[in-house]
Design a protein that fits this description.
This protein is α/β, with parallel strands linked by helices and 259 residues long. Helix content is 27%, strand content 27%. It is built from 7 helices and 14 strands. The radius of gyration is 17 Å and the shape is globular. The relative contact order is 0.16.
Length: 259
């Protein structure tokens, strides 16, 4: 099921790619096969030097934005968001494969409460272990179930959480004037967590939706370890500074914006 030009109620799926052509092909094929809700796919290619662009030329149902250089994850996401008009935006990693009937539960979850601002789903890695079931607690985070063997009854309830994995993250276009786009100061890492914090600071809910499941192969970026660590540490420093020692500030039990 793909969206048509006159379809108003659809999901803008935005995928960021940087030299992950083989994973990207599997991701796109799974979307085409298993999506159960109207959608439009946009791939923002961040200056890939592998065969990603040649691959994308074979997918005539995919919109492509080709950056000459790596613009960073958050900025590329914003390019994809701004290039479309669908009421729901789904940010998806290129190393994700979706499963049957994965998309409509996320839309239904988003629609179930006007305060739902960010929705994430259950993620399983290549070893059959949980790689995403929502984040709870104050900073430093508690990644629920990380590395546990997957079972259907494990974290099987929809519930509000602190944050979710940005590998598959849905947001509402109508909230962009309030929540804004992703903070482009994050080149790689923490941009998803920051957005969840922003949503909560503005009074919206971040919701884990286990009715939707995807496979996330994790850590497939071709970036060298030293460069990845540098990006991670820079993002961590920015996050902690922005949100005040990295911890939630609360007044009367509610999260408030950072000073």
């Amino acid at each position: 099921m793909n969206c048509v030009d006159e379809q108003k109620d659809y999901v803008d799926i935005v995928i960021i790619n940087h030299n992950t052509a083989n994973y990207l092909a599997s991701c796109l094929d799974s979307i085409r096969k298993y999506s159960d809700y109207p959608y439009q796919v946009t791939v923002v290619d961040n200056g890939s030097t592998d065969h990603s662009l040649a691959l994308l030329a074979q997918y005539n149902w995919v919109k492509t934005i080709a950056n000459k250089t790596n613009q960073g994850y958050a900025r590329a996401c914003n390019q994809g968001i701004n290039g479309n008009t669908g009421p729901f935006i789904l940010l998806l990693n290129s190393d994700v494969e979706v499963t049957p009937n994965w998309l409509s539960p996320m839309v239904q979850c988003m629609q179930s409460n006007p305060l739902n601002g960010v929705v994430g789903n259950r993620q399983i890695n290549a070893e059959g272990q949980l790689a995403g079931a929502g984040v709870i607690g104050d900073y430093p985070f508690q990644y629920r179930g990380w590395g546990l063997p997957f079972r259907q009854d494990l974290y099987d309830r929809e519930e509000e959480v602190i944050s979710i994995s940005g590998a598959c993250m849905m947001i509402k276009r109508e909230l962009l004037p309030v929540l804004h786009l992703l903070d482009e100061r994050y080149f790689f890492y923490f941009e998803d967590t920051d957005y969840c914090y922003q949503a909560r600071a503005k009074g919206y809910r971040v919701v884990y939706c286990p009715a939707s499941t995807v496979f996330h192969y994790c850590d497939t970026s071709p970036l060298k370890d030293k460069l990845r660590l540098r990006y991670y540490l820079a993002a961590k420093k920015l996050f902690e500074h922005k949100w005040g020692l990295g911890a939630f500030k609360k007044k009367g039990g509610k999260t408030v914006e950072p000073d």
